[in-house]
UniProtKB/TrEMBL annotation:
Protein name: Orotidine-5'-phosphate decarboxylase
Ranges of residues in domain Orotidine 5'-phosphate decarboxylase: 29-282
Pathway assignment: Pyrimidine metabolism; UMP biosynthesis via de novo pathway; UMP from orotate: step 2/2
Catalytic activity: orotidine 5'-phosphate + H(+) = UMP + CO2
Gene Ontology MF terms in the entry: orotidine-5'-phosphate decarboxylase activity
Keywords associated with the record: Decarboxylase, Lyase, Pyrimidine biosynthesis
């Protein structure tokens, strides 16, 4: 054999935005939350322990993958964390199963700290081969969008994404998030503009998105029609449907120009159908979402 070898070009890592766009195209916009509330474990006939959360999570992953109409899942870390190391072991199994099934995984851990600590979170959640590897992570910017730089950088390098809380769905969010800065913009918008600025290639769906609750009027949170247009190509993670009161039919009205890039996230109102009704509930909700976002 000759010593001369042709070097193969390095494989380009697909960005999170590209993969999210592909998931939208192949499966639609529905994201099924994996929230193993203790009352749901009981309702599903599962033990109220880490094994229960594992069985619950694996069942949701299997149903989403089998339906083909939900290409994204969002495990809520809190309900696994409640069982300590055994809960994290269960979460690792659920994440591995979701990855194996080809689902896009948004880890809902709402991390965010000073920059040097965010490096640790990037190691844990956004690094290929890490036990808790996900495709995208929810984070808070209370320490400042700039403090998230290690997470943005690592996500970009590894083909991962972030969803940063901007206008959250809970009733208490307004006092803080609608507060105005010295320059007169709302805290929600300050965060949104900072995140959008990290999406440098505006010709494609970005890797960095915003959490905008579907229960809110975005103009109350300081977003004008123009500012929403300026956020185009920034993906949106939208919780608040079902149990929190928002309806799928309102998506175009709530999100305006951002509606085509919305991840429609729903947990309890699908999960309450139990293991036997889950598949039908996913199909029914996906059909409704498909009618408003094509
Ligand atoms: O980041 C989130 O997903 C999130 C942000 C937000 O503003 N509101 C919100 O409800 N969530 C999460 O979305 C899920 C909503 O659950 P359901 O109300 O059961 O659909 C929970 O896991 C919440 O923690």
């Amino acid at each position: 054999m000759s010593g001369a070898q042709t070097a193969s070009p390095p494989t380009r890592i697909r960005s999170f935005g590209e993969r999210l766009d592909a998931a939208f195209g192949a499966h639609g916009h529905l994201c099924v939350g994996i929230d193993p509330h203790p009352y749901l474990l009981e309702q599903w006939g599962l033990p109220g322990d880490a094994n229960g959360t594992r069985s619950f999570g694996l069942a949701v992953v299997a149903a989403a993958a089998a339906s083909g109409r939900a290409g994204i899942v969002k495990p809520q870390v809190a309900f696994f964390e409640a069982y300590g190391s055994a809960g994290f072991a269960a979460l690792e199994d659920v994440l591995a199963a979701a990855r194996e099934a080809g689902l896009l995984v948004i880890g809902d851990a709402k991390r965010g700290d000073i920059g040097s600590t965010n490096d640790g979170y990037a190691d844990a959640w956004l690094t290929s081969g890490s036990p808790l590897e996900v495709d995208a992570l929810t984070v808070t910017a209370f320490t400042g969008v700039g403090a998230l730089a290690p997470l943005f950088d690592r996500a970009e390098a590894n083909g991962k994404g972030l969803f940063v809380l901007s206008a959250t769905s809970n009733p208490e969010s307004g006092a803080l998030q609608t507060a105005r800065t010295g320059a007169g913009e709302s805290v929600s918008r300050l965060v949104a503009d900072g995140v959008a600025a990290r999406n440098t290639d505006r010709t494609r769906l970005g890797d960095f998105g915003l959490v905008l609750g579907a229960t809110k009027r975005l103009d109350d949170y300081g977003f004008t029609a123009d500012s929403l247009r300026g956020l185009s190509t920034t993906p949106v993670l939208a919780p608040g449907f079902g149990f929190q009161g928002a309806e799928y039919s309102a998506i175009p009205h709530i999100f305006g120009p951002l509606a085509p890039d919305v991840v429609v996230s729903v947990s309890r109102s699908i999960l309450q159908h139990g293991p036997t009704g889950l598949a039908a509930a996913i199909d029914a909700d996906a059909a409704q979402v498909g009618e408003v976002i094509s």
